[in-house]
Design brief:
Elements (H helix, E strand, L loop, with lengths): L7 E6 L1 H4 L8 E4 L3 H10 L4 E6 L1 H7 L7 E4 L3
Parallel strand pairs: 1-2, 1-3, 3-4
Length: 75
């Protein structure tokens, strides 16, 4: 049987848009501007396999994304 491993879920973006995700165990990384969003992305430990992004954070990170599963919240 293949080894199962846990991965964390993170959310990056404007605090008002992501703070509710903390209630269900998502690690939130508030980023009110593009530079902060890019720094948050770069600082994410490898243990976070999925990242929820606000549209502004997704635009800031752009092609810098790696192979993590990401989803962008609706505008």
């Amino acid at each position: 049987m293949p080894e199962l491993r846990q991965t964390g879920i993170a959310a990056i973006g404007q605090a008002a848009r992501i703070e509710g995700y903390a209630l269900v165990g998502v690690a939130t990384w508030p980023a009110e501007d593009a530079d902060t969003a890019r720094r948050a992305w770069d600082a994410l430990p490898a243990s976070f396999g999925m990242v929820i992004l606000t549209p502004a954070a997704a635009a800031a990170i752009g092609e810098h994304r790696d192979d993590r599963l990401t989803t962008v919240l609706p505008a």
